[in-house]
């Protein structure tokens, strides 16, 4: 990274689940750099969904480096996910034709529920020796049994990781949703299911969804639960693939609680 900016810049690794992320500083100038970030970052920036994109550079090896404003701020706390501004920003994302057009242009075909289920079943080996094994397969059987009920009439740009760590509140009180590496065109219930099941008490779902701008139908609840279970299984597989045994166990515990809450499994 130093050869891109110059020796006067200090480069500090910033982690990130995919790609490479860095903080860069030169006196009072600060940037957030990332290698091979989402190719529609420019549209996200123009829509005010992520911090402003400053420049993009393509390297000789084909890698693309993006630089964004480095904003002072913090991630949202779990209880802050209930705030109306979260519902408002997610609704803006899901209803953005510009985002959808861009993602479709870069060959992001809609992710269908049968595709998700197929991927989970193809990677069943990652559940080997997991405890409790029985509940994992009850969850998979649930996904299979409900597959015909979760066809979506509408597909939108989904972030696909509604973890509160990805919601950033800047010092000037601007809310952003960051880390778009896993974005897909999919049923909006994918994002809604994860967010509501993880952070919003069931009795608050109806007013939250009203602020988001959708009616709380039984079909929507079914789709949200289906995607919450599916994503839980996917996260368990991902952490086990990485060797994160403790995190996988925590995800498994959350999945079991989700199944109990919705009558999918009775201990």
From TrEMBL:
Cited InterPro entries: Aminoglycoside_PTrfase, CcrZ_PhaseVar_Mediator, Kinase-like_dom_sf, Prot_kinase_dom
Lineage: superkingdom: Bacteria
Ranges annotated as spanning the membrane: none
Classification via PROSITE patterns: PROTEIN_KINASE_DOM
One Pfam family recorded for the sequence: APH
Domain Protein kinase per the UniProt entry, residue ranges: 7-267
PANTHER family, sorted: CELL CYCLE REGULATOR CCRZ, PHOSPHOTRANSFERASE YTMP-RELATED
Protein name: Phosphotransferase
Organism, scientific name: Thalassobacillus devorans
């Amino acid at each position: 990274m130093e050869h891109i900016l110059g020796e006067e810049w200090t480069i500090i690794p910033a982690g990130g689940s995919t790609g490479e992320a860095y903080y860069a500083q030169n006196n009072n100038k600060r940037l957030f750099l990332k290698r091979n970030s989402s190719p529609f970052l420019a549209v996200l920036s123009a829509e005010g969904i992520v911090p402003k994109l400053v420049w993009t550079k393509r390297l000789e090896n084909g890698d693309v480096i993006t630089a964004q404003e480095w904003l002072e701020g913090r991630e949202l706390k779990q209880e802050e996910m209930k705030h109306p501004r979260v519902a408002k920003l997610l609704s803006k994302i899901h209803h953005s034709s510009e985002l959808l057009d861009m993602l479709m242009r870069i060959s992001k075909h809609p992710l269908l529920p049968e595709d998700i289920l197929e991927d989970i079943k193809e990677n069943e080996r990652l559940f080997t020796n997991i405890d409790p094994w029985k509940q994992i397969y009850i969850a998979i059987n649930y996904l299979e049994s409900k597959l015909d009920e979760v066809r979506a009439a509408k597909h939108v740009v989904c972030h696909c990781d509604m973890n509160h760590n990805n919601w950033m509140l800047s010092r000037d009180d601007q809310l952003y949703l960051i880390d778009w590496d896993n974005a897909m065109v999919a049923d909006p219930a994918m994002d809604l299911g994860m967010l509501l099941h993880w952070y919003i008490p069931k009795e608050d779902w109806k007013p939250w969804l009203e602020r988001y701008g959708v009616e709380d139908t039984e079909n929507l609840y079914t789709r949200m639960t289906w995607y919450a279970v599916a994503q839980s299984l996917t996260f368990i597989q991902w952490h086990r693939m990485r060797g994160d045994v403790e995190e996988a166990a925590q995800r498994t515990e959350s999945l079991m609680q989700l199944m109990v809450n919705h009558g999918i499994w009775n201990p």
